[in-house]
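Subject: two folds for Thursday's group meeting

Dear M.,

Sorry for the delay on this. The cluster queue was jammed most of the week, so I only got both jobs back this morning. I'm pasting them in the order they finished. Each block is the input sequence followed by the predicted structure tokens. Could you check whether the formatting survives your parser before we put anything on slides? The first protein is the one we discussed after the seminar.
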Amino acid sequence: MTEVTDEFGALLTRLLRKIMLILQGRKALVAVLRPDGSQLIPARAAFGLDAEQLAAIDTERLRAFSQFALTARTPTTLNSSGECSSALGDTMGGAISNGLCVPLLAQPGDTQPIAGLLFLFNKATGDAFSAEDRSLSIVLSRQLAAVLFEQQRRAPMV
């Protein structure tokens, strides 16, 4: 499994903390997409999750929930109908009431590669993530994407 280096991991963590504060998520996770698109790998940059919970995440289920965001290349709200909560809640330390999945694109456009995905869960207000949250997440996620692309440029994934 490929890991984000400590230098880039620290930067991802700082950016993720700022994004969580702005968008009011209680749990957050960055998952790196291998350049060939074959695997989604949780990075160590996460909040509201301990190392054991992070290791227990089923990346195939995570990828299934993120498929629309990957295909449409746009932020997607994860519903609270129970399917997301039942699939991820146990591994993420409690119920998931709502979520936002954001593809990490350095620039908008259909030809740009996706570096990974940002997942935010359980908005602090209890409300679902709004259209404004989705729009803001696009701008904020570009910073995360830039860090991941620089990491890949310096140390390509194997």
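Second protein, same layout:
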Amino acid sequence: MDEMIGMLPGSAEEFVKKFGGCGDFRPFAYYDKHLDCIRVQTMDCSFKEDRKNKMITVLSANHYETGNFAGFTLKGVRYMFEKLGLPVTGVHKLADLLDRLVRVFPDAAFRQIQANFRPILEEQNLTVELT
């Protein structure tokens, strides 16, 4: 695997080092600083994106009848963190972040994200690092 990692370009190499190569899938989250969004993927599958509002996109698995939520994207992270009074740096626990977002933005889209994803975020203790 180390030989393969050396052949990958910078960002892909960093991704493989952080999240692993082949093997068992683990839910993950990361901050995309160029698009100012947090991306969370909880299932290893192909998915379609369904925009819920200006800040939330839900990922829905293409090949599942039920339980098809595969992840989500939070857009406008700097704005959200400013509204929450949080620093836009450091490591943040996603389950706690969702709870705070629902209090500040109590619309249906944020409540749906909290209801569908909070249990797995808590179980996996998923965090995201903002730099």
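Two things I noticed about the second structure. The CA atoms of residues 91 and 129 lie 4 Å apart. The chain has a mean pLDDT of 87.

Cheers,
T.
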